[in-house]
Amino acid sequence: MAKINPPAARVLAIETSCDETACAILENGGRVLASVVASQMEIHARYGGVFPEVASRQHILSLAPVVEQALNQAHLTWRELDAIAVTRGPGLAGALLVGLNLAKGLALASGLPLVGVNHLEGHIYSAWVYRNGEPPPAEPQFPLLALLVSGGHTELNLMERHLSYRRLGGTLDDAAGEAFDKVARLLGLEYPGGPAIQHAARQGNPERFKFPRPWLEGSWDFSFSGLKTAVLREVRRLEASLGREQLPVADLAASFQAAVVDVLVGKTLRAARSSGARAILIAGGVAANQALREAFQSQSEFPIYIPPLWVCTDNAAMIAAAGYFRLIHGKTDSLDIDVLPTWPLSDMEG
Ligand code: KG4
Ligand code: ZN
To answer: Which domains does the chain carry?
Structure first.
């Protein structure tokens, strides 16, 4: 087994849970020595969403060159690394298998320890990531309330310390990113919907349509499917009176975005106050949303930690960061681990 040298541990990470084939190398769980992301977005855009079989096949084609490229970017050899981290779940089973199998083979050949990482945990640890040459970000303080908003998940977790997650609530139906993607499709905007809605909303009036804010009082859960249906009803009504061509896409996008942002910010702030959190962390693809970032910054009395844009959507740097913290806490895995396509964050041992 290779010697682990915590003050300068270098972790190579692989991420293949969905439609990005990614590999990164980080030092100390933060400093990026290399980060390569091969996006399949254009391939899936023609299906209007991720096509699982196509994703797995594409990962097989892209992964080895992506890993090579990361090692070249970092100017490192296998001997200069301390561990291999890999996304084990949640995600698409076939896609996850491609990454896990390669990671196991590399760990076996190199003798490096293998660290299986939860993808959601990776999103949270994206807040520790910084580019080589830049100063490290301020360390989030615990207890830390983490709002995770991605294409597949929307949940609030209270972290009392590193690697410990107490789930306060989550979505009962659509994830926030999924709602963005579905509403974008209703409005005739391209996939992925989040950036498209944000772009269209810039020219729109967020107060023109009063879409519902599902507060679900008394719980920290979220629900976005009613909001999506309300947008659908409004679109149908407008199409009947104005015609599809005249649909006020910008106002619809801005009003929908405002409803999502209100609920996410409002509930997270209330949860932070009632749970004794000292700070709030926002992560996942939807954390790239400018309106959401601005609303948190302007409304929160708590320090807010939001990763830079490039690390909000899927990448392997965040998996390397989470992998580093698992490594230094002695949480390595054996070579016979399997993928876990549904792996709740709250199942991770604290
Ligand atoms: O975290 P991520 O890359 O993948 C998952 O783990 O799901 O998140 C992708 C999701 C998509 O639903 C996408 O529409 C959304 O994040 N997203 C955004 C923005 N950028 C990406 N949603 C709102 N505004 C954005 N700027
Ligand atoms: Zn993700």
So the answer is: 6-129+311-347 (3.30.420.40), 144-305 (3.30.420.40)
